[in-house]
Design a protein that fits this description.
The protein is α+β, with helices and mostly antiparallel strands. It has one domain. The strands form two sheets. It has a three-stranded antiparallel β-sheet, with helices on one face. A two-stranded antiparallel ribbon has the order 2-3. It is flat and about 55 Å long.
């Protein structure tokens, strides 16, 4: 049996790897699509400061929702970018 994975040493790297695995699976199950939008994976868009605390590298404007747009660039090549969406209240 293998040793348990200690995420503390590379939490952000593991988060990005997890997100990439999820994106790969999505495109495999949607072969005719070239992009999609998803919620960010926790710790995908942050870095560790000197004390090991997570610091976000994105700063959504007030009232905006943070999402991730994923593009299929070519076979086995994808790109991700943060996007910010403001939903209007259409009930007024």
């Amino acid at each position: 049996m293998s040793e348990p994975l200690d995420l503390r040493h590379d939490l952000h790297g593991h988060a990005i790897e997890f997100a990439c695995d999820q994106d790969r699976a999505w495109f495999e199950s949607h072969p005719d699509e070239s992009c999609y939008i998803r919620e960010p994976v926790e710790h995908e868009w942050c870095i560790s400061d000197a004390d090991g605390r997570c610091v976000s590298v994105v700063d959504p404007p007030p009232g905006a929702t943070f999402l991730v747009e994923v593009f299929m660039i070519g076979p086995r090549v994808r790109a991700r970018r943060p996007i910010f969406v403001v939903f209007e209240d259409v009930t007024r």
